Amino acid sequence: MGSSHMQAKGKTFWDALSFSGPGPERINGRLAMVGFVSAIAVEVMRGEDLAAQLANGGVLWFAGAAALLSVASLVPLFRGVDAPDRSDAPMTADAEIWNGRFAMLGLVALAVTEYVKGGPLV
């Protein structure tokens, strides 16, 4: 791992994070799922909209979660294990991808709805 790029089981770091690689959509989906649930939970508990959450320390929480989930998602890839290899019904790799996509749409819809409404959703 002392070279200019990390390599494990035939995959380089950049292969894993390439546009069509196994990392980006899975990592972004996992972040979106955690972010959507967290945003709704904070709205219910504190009444803060998404903009207020980001202004009140949410950016730091996001950066920490992004780093942690990225590392946790990449470690199995470098060990030669991909999500489809570990999936079992009903928790399939395809279900995780779709849930991540819906969470991404949910975050965008939440932000747009709060902007149009002028405040928190709940």
UniProtKB/TrEMBL annotation:
The UniProt entry, under InterPro entries, shows: Chloroa_b-bind (IPR022796)
Keyword annotations for this protein, in alphabetical order, are: Chloroplast, Membrane, Plastid, Transit peptide, Transmembrane, Transmembrane helix
One GO cellular component term:
chloroplast
Q: Give the domain of life.
A: Eukaryota
Pfam families per the UniProt record, alphabetical: Chloroa_b-bind
Q: Which family does it belong to?
A: Belongs to the ELIP/psbS family.
Q: What is this protein called?
A: Early light-induced protein
